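Example record used in the benchmark description.
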Amino acid sequence: MLLEMLAAVPESLDDFLAWRPCSYREHFAASNFKNRETVIAAYRESDPAIRKALDALADTMNVMLLATREAMKASTTASSADALANCAVAWLRPLVARAGYVINGTDAVKARKADAGAAQAAVDALMQR
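Model output (structure tokens):
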């Protein structure tokens, strides 16, 4: 994830600030992924409830990323941008994991346990500051 690279590669901030959200289909259509057409077709043919769940997760992640981007635009130091990036990554990790569970059809109980562990890790990291 671009945000995870920010501390080590500060010049990647411009790339993140230029980022714009796109849909699942738009993301794969624009990618160089070898099987992108298969992925897009699978998405299109998937159960509407599963598609809705995935889209809701993607929308939530996009809102978080857009808010982080706006906060970074207003920040004046590299250290504050790095802190914002670290917080965003901690918030996004459980959502990315959940999206993986939705895509791969993993059991929802396992997904909730993984989310709870990731959320606790994020809280622990914040408390160490």
